[in-house]
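> example.struct
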């Protein structure tokens, strides 16, 4: 099945006869007939009914059913052909853990749009850390921001920034400026699994208790759940900075706090160095505006 055969099929339908279609395509009638015969032989059934003395040609039942299939084939062929005009060197395929994508990357993407215009196109994916390692190794992602660093063959893990963990709560309850973990009610916690180091700290103070109010694996519900009476959470500084703008949320320091969170970026090879560096520059600019965050990108 070729483009010329599908083109012939649709032109005959449009023109109503093989002779008219041949004229429109600037080919001989026998040549056009051979294209249709080849297509029918490949499919194993006739597409047009041929009756002696009948000038106009008609579709068979299977020919009518083949029309939407042929259209899909043309669409796919068109998409494949358009790859000739696609310069993938300016497409940045990026992945990130949810907290970074929700609270840091929006301004970074905005900065790239302002400074790079159409020269850089962003294709974003929200992945967990281990998923990102796999996609970067396979070349499907150019750069990924992750929180759980592991060894993965062929993938570089490079620190991006470090940030303090802080306490946030609904304003229905007042706390001192520095909150000790022993003061907290586990059954009011919004539990978030930031990284293995945080989990170890959490288990030490709360004895792996299941008495959380709600457990979240993604960031998109955090702001809503913090509107609940007495709800609290422990979050990185970059998240707390955005939450502080909500009139029902307060931010506090923690006594005996969890270890600082470190975010890393992953890359494999030296491809797309220019667009990656442009992204990292914009990211560094944003990180330097967030209190409690130390960027490693300017070092």
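> example.seq
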């Amino acid at each position: 099945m070729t483009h010329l055969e599908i083109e012939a099929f649709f032109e005959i339908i449009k023109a109503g006869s093989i002779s008219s279609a041949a004229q429109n395509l600037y080919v001989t009638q026998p040549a056009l007939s051979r294209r249709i015969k080849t297509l029918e032989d490949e499919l194993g059934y006739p597409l047009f009914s041929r009756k002696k003395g009948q000038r106009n040609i008609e579709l068979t039942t299977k020919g009518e059913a083949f029309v939407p299939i042929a259209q899909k084939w043309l669409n796919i062929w068109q998409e494949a052909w358009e790859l000739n005009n696609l310069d993938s060197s300016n497409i940045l395929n990026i992945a990130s853990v949810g907290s970074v994508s929700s609270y840091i990357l929006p301004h970074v993407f905005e900065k790239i749009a302002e400074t790079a215009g159409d020269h850089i196109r962003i294709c974003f994916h929200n992945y967990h850390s281990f998923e990102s390692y796999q996609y970067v190794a396979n070349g499907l992602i150019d750069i990924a921001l992750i929180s759980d660093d592991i060894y993965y063959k062929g993938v570089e893990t490079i620190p991006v920034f470090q940030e303090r963990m802080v306490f946030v709560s609904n304003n229905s309850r007042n706390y001192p400026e520095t909150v000790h973990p022993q003061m907290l009610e586990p059954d009011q916690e919004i539990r978030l699994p930031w990284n293995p180091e945080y989990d170890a700290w959490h288990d030490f103070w709360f004895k792996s208790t299941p008495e959380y109010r709600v457990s979240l694996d993604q960031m998109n519900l955090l702001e809503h759940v913090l509107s609940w009476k007495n709800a609290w959470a422990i979050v990185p500084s970059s998240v707390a900075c955005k939450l502080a703008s909500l009139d029902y949320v307060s931010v506090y320091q923690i006594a005996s706090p969890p270890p600082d969170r470190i975010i890393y970026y992953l890359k494999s090879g030296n491809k797309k160095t220019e667009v990656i560096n442009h992204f990292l520059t914009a990211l560094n600019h944003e990180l330097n505006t967030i209190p409690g965050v130390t960027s490693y990108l300017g070092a």
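> remarks
The longest strand covers residues 156-163.
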